[in-house]
Amino acid sequence: MSEATLISPEPITPSNGALLEEPRHLKPPASPDALEHMQLVQGEFWRSIPAYQDIDEATFLNHLWQYQHSVKTPDELLNTIQALAPAHFIDDVRAGFHRAPMNVRVSPYMIACIDWSRPYTDPIRTQFIPLASRLVPDHPKLSLDSLHEQEDAPVPGLVHRYVDKALFLPTNVCPVYCRYCTRSYAIGGDTEVVEKAEVATDAKRWQHAFEYIASRPELQDIVISGGDAYQLPAKSLKKIGDALLDIPNVRRMRFASKGPAVMPMKIMSDAAWTDALTSVVERGRSMGKDVMLHTHFNHPNEITWITAKAMNVLFERGIMVRNQSVLIRGVNDDKHVMRLLVKRLGYVHVHPYYVYMHDMVKGVEDLRTTVQAAVDIEKFVRGSTAGFNTPTFVCDAPGGGGKRDVHSYDYYDRVNGIAVYSAPSVKPGQWFTYFDPIEALSPEAQARWADPQAHAEMIAAAVEKANAAA
Ligand SMILES: *Cc1c(COP(=O)(O)O)cnc(C)c1O
Ligand code: SF4
Q: 457 CA distance to ligand 1 centroid (A)?
């Protein structure tokens, strides 16, 4: 470093009056992009949306108003954004709705976080509002319940797949519906193309789940997942939390909710819900049991001053929040965007826990990306902030092997897009395969996937290489 780039701060005068020696190896000032994660959207940003022009802060920060004005149909979208997006965009949305496996439900908060000057490429629009023009054919190896959760459910809505942890699905509604939902077999109402399995709210079904958990001493860790804990009335949340805390073998619980990402104001305006969560966390703490909130932010634009305020309420109450993102093409499959997301999450006291490879679910092939992309992004992100705020990038390939570190594949055929994983302590001796989206492959590889006869051979060849490497 040349002398000229050194900055000389004011000399520090300690209380004894002696001048400290000037620091010698001073770093140059941080570049502006090292500070970008702290620059959250401020003010009444929603007023740029025609339908919210006259909405004051008190109204916008009310979760009931947010629910009541959530956009569920193309007409509601049109009435909300009016001339902000071109007519051909709305037509594209109409056609997209007819072909989507998920319901649509977008909070005014999310609508206001979308940059309507570029609706086709906006990362938030991409997650929640389907466009017919963007749909691409599915990979031939996709299925609707790609994780086969229904096969590992001893009681409906309770998935006990791994030894010490289970997934409890108390409800099938969410504060928003994500196009890429891994539980698109069950979540939300039936759409024109999918009839949903029954995991609706039901106290008797819950009781069966609790009895099963109590009967399995190895079960220590319960994920209360989606559906979404945000949609549980405060009373139900407390009932579930207390019932699980009362089971001696349960040591850890996580309530999973997309809510903080799509409707952070509820943490402030629904005092009964936040207090119910707080009471379960505090009761757990008094019993030596760990209760946390897991959430799901995917893009830095989802984090505004409202998020920071809401997360601070939880922080003050000692409620830890962890984040699980999904790696989504056109949303966060860019290394700079992912780094910004990770740093911004840390900034608002949310610990980035996982970034998942997009599950191989049908109907959203435009959203998947390759294992190679995940490996590259992970490499870029690691080292940019504290290690405990650095997420693990994982692939939950079909077959029940669980979440595997993305770059721990035993073999990766990059040409045909086949990553082969093993899970020695989960299912020893078994191989699990993840397929890159067809669009990302060369024309030759695409032609091979177009021929059903070639599939088994390509997969067997990759597994054989994995076997040889093992
Ligand atoms: C993801 C998952 C869990 C929790 O896994 P962690 O790696 O501990 O976060 C538990 N059960 C099932 C079925 C899961 O898919
Ligand atoms: S919030 Fe979670 S469970 Fe609900 S639709 Fe989105 S991904 Fe699926």
A: 32
User: For residue 160, which atom of ligand 1 is closest to its CA?
Assistant: 13
Distance of alpha carbon 227 from alpha carbon 6, whole angstroms = 54
Q: Answer whether the bond into residue 383 is a cis peptide, omega within 30°.
A: no
Reduced to 3 DSSP states, what percent helix, strand and coil does the chain have, rounded to the nearest 5? 40, 15, 45
How far away, in angstroms, is 79 Cα from ligand 2 center? 25
CA-nearest of 326, 315, 227 to 264 is 315
The alpha carbon of 259 and the centre of ligand 2 are apart by a number of angstroms equal to 10
* pLDDT tens string 219-252: 999 999 867 889 889 999 999 999 999 999 999 9
Q: Is the pLDDT of residue 430 over 50?
A: yes
Is the minimum distance from the CB of 167 to ligand 1 under 6 angstroms? Answer: yes
In contact, 290 and 253? CB cutoff 8 Å: yes
Q: Ligand 2: does its nearest atom lie under 6 Å from the Cβ of 174?
A: yes
First to last CA, the chain: 47
Decide whether any atom of ligand 1 lies within 6 Å of the 292 Cβ: no
Nearest CA to ligand 2 atom 6: 178
With 0-12 / 13-18 / 19 or more C-beta atoms within 10 angstroms meaning exposed / middle / buried, residue 40 is middle
C-alpha to C-alpha distances, 78 to 71, 83, 452, nearest whole angstrom: 9, 8, 42
Give percent of the chain with pLDDT exceeding 70. Answer: 89
Q: Measure the CA–CA gap between 124 and 85, rounded to whole angstroms.
A: 15
- Does pLDDT of 321 surpass 90? yes
Using CB atoms within 10 Å of the CB of residue 443, give its burial: 0 to 12 exposed, 13 to 18 middle, 19+ buried.
exposed
335-347 and 371-381 helices cross at what angle (nearest 10)? Answer: 50
Higher pLDDT, 28 or 62: 62
Torsion of the alpha carbons at 112, 185, 235 and 307, rounded to the nearest 10? -30
Instruction: Please tell me the distance between residue 182's alpha carbon and the centre of ligand 2 in angstroms.
Output: 7
Using only C-alpha atoms, what is the Rg of the chain?
24
Report how far ligand 2's centroid is from the alpha carbon of 223 (Å).
14
Of 144, 177, 323, the one to substitute when testing ligand 2's pocket (max ligand atoms within 8 A of C-beta) is 177
* Domains of the chain from N-terminus onward: 33-405 (3.20.20.70), 409-470 (no CATH)
Which of 61-70, 98-107, 394-403 bottoms out in mean pLDDT, i.e. has the lowest?
98-107
Residue 423 Cβ inside 6 Å of ligand 2? The answer reads no
